[in-house]
Amino acid sequence: MKPVYLDNNATTRVDPQVVAAMLPYFTEQFGNPSSMHAFGAEVGGAVKRARKQLQSLIGAEFDHEIVFTSGGTESDNAAILSALEAMPERTEMITSAVEHPAILALAAHLEKTRGIKVHIIPVDAKGRLDRDAYRAALSTRVAIVSIMWANNETGTLFPVVELAEEAKAVGALFHTDAVQAVGKIPIDLKSTAIDMLSLSGHKLHGPKGIGALYVRRGVRFRSQIKGGQQERGRRGGTENTPGIVGLGKAAELAEQAMHDEVTRVRGLRDRLEKGLLQRIPNTFVTGDVDNRLPNTCNIACEFIEGEAILLLLNRAGIAASSGSACTSGSLEPSHVLRAMSVPYTAAHGATRFSFSRENNDEDVDRVIEAMPPIIEKLRDLSPFWQGAGEAPAAFKPVYA
Ligand code: PLP
């Protein structure tokens, strides 16, 4: 039976059109874009085209605001390190409790090794940022704010356009990790106060190991990879030209698919969610249901282990995830669900299904059919479920 892949927030299949666009840059078009001869010129043109394709997808004003990197993690690191270096008189940063480890691990490291004061802003039960705590943390001591555009586990969207305005008022730079948002929702940076934005190729049917950091014109930027003058001196090292061409093509395809395909994907996600909620008792959706990515469903089934659900789904040919790929393998519920105070009895049984334009109705039917007996079987074995029937009041989720 054809496998059902519903783990697109972890990574996506490279679109065959992307592969086709990349192939010549491994073979005939092998030149170095910095070279002065014809081999270099053609490849230099291809890099420029890719920059424009990304510029268009995120609504940047200028193509040179795009700096190619090795992916989301490098972009996130570069944004924060650059800001702290550019504004040494400011020794604080702000982020949220539900960021990706690419931000949170760096913040912890900076706190420990450089004495940077890190304000970690909490979220509520729906994963929404505590706006009062955010305002209270903002001051002229803050060099950089880094708040994600969309959460990778629940899909919850953050009001980054408004948050950036508030950061600007105290002269802090505003960075957003938009690795999960780019290509899934419309983004138009021109009219915002967002200074920097991270994106990653492999989350939008592009290749792995390539990404970009948008740096608004005029923002003081300090290169974190010293070397040649590539990327206008903002990132040394010969460009990953096949990857850059692939990322550009992926951006173009994502922009084309933005309306019709995203609406179709949302329909698939909603049908899956409705089907599971109807068929499985003591189950609820985590995150901000009314304000989230159209492709993500994080569903918590009380009184069972997420890991066991994944193993049995895998046996049925269905690939999903419990929390983020980086935290699966650990039996602790994810830091995102803990930050949202999802009760332990439910957080353990949280499963993330994330769609892409490659999914179809048959995929949804397969999960709706496979999941209820899996949950029933696991609950039969669960000491917590025995006799629980209806969830005890203390475990009732607080979500409406
Ligand atoms: N930020 C978020 C929100 C992510 O979901 C991921 C990947 O899972 C990353 C950053 C890291 O991106 P990359 O894998 O390109 O380094």
Automatic annotation (TrEMBL):
Catalytic activity field: (sulfur carrier)-H + L-cysteine = (sulfur carrier)-SH + L-alanine
UniProt xrefs under InterPro entries: Aminotrans_V_dom, Aminotrans_V_PyrdxlP_BS, Cys_deSase_NifS_bac/arc, Cysteine_dSase, PyrdxlP-dep_Trfase, PyrdxlP-dep_Trfase_major, PyrdxlP-dep_Trfase_small
GO biological processes: amino acid metabolic process
Record's keyword annotation contains NADP: no
EC number, as in UniProt: 2.8.1.7
First-level EC class: transferase
Keyword terms, alphabetized: Iron, Iron-sulfur, Metal-binding, Nitrogen fixation, Pyridoxal phosphate, Transferase
Any one GO MF annotation of this record: pyridoxal phosphate binding
Cofactor(s) the record lists: pyridoxal 5'-phosphate
Stored Pfam families: Aminotran_5 (PF00266)
Gene3D superfamilies: 1.10.260.50, Aspartate Aminotransferase, domain 1, Type I PLP-dependent aspartate aminotransferase-like (Major domain)
Annotated ranges, domain Aminotransferase class V: 4-367
Role, per record: Catalyzes the removal of elemental sulfur atoms from cysteine to produce alanine. Seems to participate in the biosynthesis of the nitrogenase metalloclusters by providing the inorganic sulfur required for the Fe-S core formation.
Recorded family membership: Belongs to the class-V pyridoxal-phosphate-dependent aminotransferase family. NifS/IscS subfamily.
Matching NCBIfam families: FeS_nifS
Quaternary organization: Homodimer.
Protein name per its UniProtKB record: Cysteine desulfurase
Organism of provenance: Prosthecodimorpha staleyi
Organism ancestry: Bacteria, Pseudomonadati, Pseudomonadota, Alphaproteobacteria, Hyphomicrobiales
Gene for this chain: nifS
